[in-house]
Design goal:
homodimer; 337 residues; 434 Repressor (Amino-terminal Domain); Rossmann fold; four-stranded parallel sheet; DNA-binding; transcription regulation (chains A, B); LacI/GalR-like_sensor (chains A, B); transcription (chains A, B); Peripla_BP_I (chains A, B); LacI family gluconate utilization system Gnt-I transcriptional repressor (chains A, B)
DNA sequence: CTGAAAGCGCTTACAG
DNA sequence: CTGAAAGCGCTTACAG
C-alpha cells in the first residue's frame, strides 16, 4: 500500500485554495495574532483539508533559524546519555525544535561529523563529553558561531555553556556514607582512563572522604572500562590481596558495582553484612541486582532538559542567565551498604 | 572564548574569492568530474582558507533532497534500538546523510512527532516498531510519499519496506537447544503485552519447539514489561508452583533471564546443573551475569545498516532489490544452559 | 488586517 | 569546461 502524492501542497497552493495571499498563510502559522480570526480559521481548515505540511527547510533558509539542535554523543548504549537525549528531545519537541543526532566515539571522527552537522546549520549544539574535544573541533564550532552547551561537565565551559554536576561531591558523599555505616577498610574501583577527568574527579571525591575520616585512601584499583561487569571482580581480587580486611567497595559506576555484587554472590558473601558496595549512575540494573545497589543518581534526563533550556534561551534571546548550571544528584539508598 | 563570525561565507563569497562562478563552485562539490582539475584545486583551497561550509539547508531546498533520515524509536534505553541506531547512523554518515531522531513511546505522541518530522522533508523514515502505529500515522507517512522502512519487523511491511528477523525461529531454535540438553520441564517467561506481536511470536516459537519435542508447552507465565529484572523471579515462582520439577526457563528477554539467574543465586541453585536459563537479545548483561547467559543475538546494528541501505537505494534509484530483508540472528552460547 | 516583492543560498537544465 | 538565469518554498521588512 505504498502511494503518497509525490507533489506536496505548497504554501502557494494553500493560499490559492483558501483565497488569500501566501504571506497571510505564513502569518497564520507564525504570527496568528496578526491575522483575523475568520481568515485564520479558513486557512487552517483548508490546510487540514488538503493535508498541507509546512516545508521547514524553506522556512529555515528564509528565516535563518533551522530549529534543529545537533547532539553529539559518545555512545547511545550508555543509559546516562540515553537519558540525557530523552530529556533533551522531549524538551525540544515541546518547543518545536528537532534533534539532529550523531554518535562519535573517536575524536578524529568527531571532526568529520561536526563538519557535516555544521553544514546543516543547526541552531545549537549539545556536546556530551565522554571524551575531550580536539582543538580542531573546538575551532570548527567556534568559527560557526553556533551556541553550544557541554553536558556532563562540571567545570567552566570550554566553549560557551555547560551543564552538569559535581562528580567530586557525589563520590565524596556516597563514600562518606560508607564511613558512617562504620566501615573502616574501603576500596575504590575506578577506571584507568587517565585522559578522562570525569573518572579522576570521582576518585578524588572518594579519597577526600577517606582523608576526612582519617582512613586509608590508597586502596585504589583501576580496571579497564572495557572490562564491564568483570571489572568489579577484578577490583575485589586486587584490593582484597592488598587489604584482606576490606569491608566495602566504592565503585566508579554501577556496572563495576554490579560486578562486585556478582562476585560477592559467587563467594557466598552476604551483602551488606559481610561486604558493602556503592555504585554510581543509578542504571536500571542498580534497582534489580540483589540486594539492590545503593548508588548516586545523576539525573541524566534533567541534564538534557537543562541543556535544551540554556540553548533555546541563548538562541531566542541572545543571552543566558548563567553559562554554567548544575543539576542536583541524589543518593539512592537501597541495600548494598 | 565565545566568538565566531556570525556571518558565514556563502558560495557566492567563495566564488568571488576563487575567481569563478557560483555554479563552478557548486560543481566542485557535487560533480567534481565536471570541473577542470586546476580550477577545482583552486576552489577547494580557497574554501579551506576562508572556512567555507556549504549550507545544506539551501542545498536541500534547491535539490529537493534533504539527505536527512528521520528515525523514530520507542526508547533509546533499549540497547537493541541503540545498536540499530548506531548501525544506521554509521552507515548514513558514510553516505553523507544525517539522522533526525525522535523518541516516542506513545502512539498519540507519535503522530505529533511525525508531523514535525515530516515538515523537515526527510528523504526517508526509519520506524522502529516497539508498538503498533496508528492509522493516522500511517496515513501521514503514506501521504508524504517518503520511503519508509520498518525495522525489527519480520512480516510483510505495513507500508513500504521492512527489515528484521524471524522472532519465531530464533525462539524456537534456542528452546530446541534446551531440549537437546536433555531438559524435559521447560517454562516460558514472557511479557503480557497482548498488542505486541513481537512477544507473541517468540512465545509461539518456544511452544512450537516444545510440541515438536513432545513436551508440555503450557508452562507459560507472563510478567509485566515494567517489572524489569524482577520479572525473572516472578516467573520462576509462578512456574515452579505450577510444575515443581521445572528444570529450565526460556525467557522473552535477557533482562528477564538475568532476573531468573539472580533468583537462582538467591536460592543457591547452581546454573546450569540445577537450573537452566535462556535469554533473548544478547544485551551487555548477558556476557557478564554469572555464569554467562546463553542467548540469541539479533544483530541490532546490522538491522540498522540494512535499513539504511534499503532506504538510500530507494531514495537514489527509486527502487529496491527486495522490500523485505532478513538479518541473520545468532545463538550465543555461554554457560547458563 | 492584508499583500507585492525581494531575498535566503544553493542546484539545475540550458547555452556557449 | 564554464556561466547567466530561473527556481526551490518559505519569511520579512515595507506599504497600503
Amino acid at each position: 500500500m505504498t502511494s503518497g502524492s509525490r507533489t506536496r501542497a505548497t504554501m502557494a497552493d494553500l493560499a490559492k485554495a483558501a483565497g488569500v495571499s501566501p504571506m497571510t498563510v505564513s502569518n497564520c502559522f507564525k504570527h496568528p495574532h496578526k491575522v483575523q480570526e475568520s481568515t485564520r480559521k479558513k486557512v487552517l481548515e483548508t490546510a487540514a483539508a488538503i493535508g498541507y505540511v509546512p516545508n521547514l527547510i524553506a522556512s529555515s533558509l528564509a528565516s535563518g533559524n533551522s530549529r534543529m539542535i545537533a547532539a553529539l554523543v559518545p555512545s547511545l548504549r550508555n543509559s546516562n546519555y540515553a537519558n540525557t537525549l530523552k530529556g533533551l528531545g522531549d524538551y525540544l519537541h515541546t518547543r518545536g525544535y528537532e534533534l539532529l543526532l550523531a554518535e562519535t566515539d573517536h575524536a578524529e571522527r568527531e571532526e568529520k561529523v561536526l563538519q557535516s552537522l555544521l553544514g546543516r546549520r543547526p541552531a545549537g549544539i549539545v556536546l556530551t563529553s565522554g571524551q575531550q574535544h580536539s582543538q580542531r573541533s573546538l575551532e570548527l564550532i567556534n568559527h560557526s558561531g553556533v551556541p553550544v552547551v557541554e553536558t556532563w561537565h562540571d567545570a567552566q565551559p570550554h566553549l560557551d555553556m555547560a551543564v552538569g554536576f559535581s562528580l567530586f561531591d557525589a563520590a565524596r558523599d556516597i563514600a562518606t556514607m560508607m564511613v558512617r555505616k562504620g566501615l573502616r577498610h574501603i576500596g575504590w574501583a575506578g577506571h584507568d582512563k587517565p585522559e578522562s577527568a570525569r573518572y579522576l574527579q570521582r576518585q578524588r571525591g572518594f579519597q577526600k572522604a577517606m582523608e576526612e575520616a582519617g582512613l586509608r585512601s590508597d586502596l585504589v584499583f583501576l580496571v579497564p572500562e572495557s572490562a564491564g561487569f568483570a571489572g568489579g571482580r577484578l577490583a575485589m581480587e586486587a584490593l582484597l590481596a592488598k587489604e584482606p580486611q576490606l569491608q566495602g567497595l566504592c565503585c566508579v559506576s554501577d556496572v563495576v558495582a554490579a560486578g562486585a555484587l556478582f562476585d560477592c554472590m559467587r563467594r557466598g558473601w552476604r551483602v551488606p553484612e559481610r561486604f558493602s558496595v556503592a555504585g554510581y549512575g543509578d542504571y536500571e540494573i542498580a534497582a534489580e541486582v540483589p540486594p539492590g545497589l545503593t548508588t548516586v543518581n545523576t539525573n541524566g534526563a534533567e541534564i538534557g532538559r537543562t541543556a535544551g533550556e540554556m540553548l533555546l534561551q541563548k538562541i531566542e534571546t541572545g543571552r543566558v542567565d548563567a553559562v554554567t548550571r548544575r543539576v542536583p544528584y541524589q543518593i539512592v539508598i537501597r541495600h548494598s551498604l
